[in-house]
User: What shape does this take?
Amino acid sequence: MLNLVLFGAPGSGKGTQSAKLIDEYGLYHISTGELLRDHIKRGTELGKIADSYISKGNLIPDDLMISILDDFLEKNAADVEGVVFDGFPRTIPQAEALEKLLNKRGTNLHAVVGLEVPEEELVERMLERGRQTGRADDTLETIKNRLDVYHNQTMPLRDYYTGNGKYLKINGHGSIDDIFEEIAANLEKHTGAKRKSKK
Ligand code: AMP
Assistant: This one.
């Protein structure tokens, strides 16, 4: 098993790098943001609750988010070779819960890939994504709140995972391929994981 967290501010490239990681390492991708957006699109009860937080750029409450993830893992990730968690955890209680969720399935978290990108670039990237995809929370006002939420609630995880030796600092500014090469090199050094195709 290889279980990874892809960590970084909104707009740091987590989704893009996740897609490359699942290809190269044969992992299962779980994006909590995509999972919630899918509920909103389908108009489920959960989607209605999620929308009231997402549209303002706030986090879904921990208890709810953790139980959604537990449920999703149970239904979708029983026989996988490993998981890339994209957008989870976003708070310390979520990080603690993730360890428990993995431990009860007989595994654990191997590394946290931290994409570090200058703030001005984050805003530009999200505005561009908003223009291209119409994503509802990629508007200037919501982006500002999402960045505040990131600094206040999510950033402490960087110290948390640095403290337990799992944080891999990656320069997230540059070309998609160069960033991925840095991730792959760090993962190999830290976990011994080998990618399927060596460039
Ligand atoms: P993302 O696609 O990861 O940028 O997430 C979009 C939005 O979904 C966030 O701004 C939150 O409102 C919500 N969300 C996604 N993941 C989480 C999480 N782990 N905890 C709480 N809210 C989340």
Remarks:
- The longest helix spans residues 176-191.
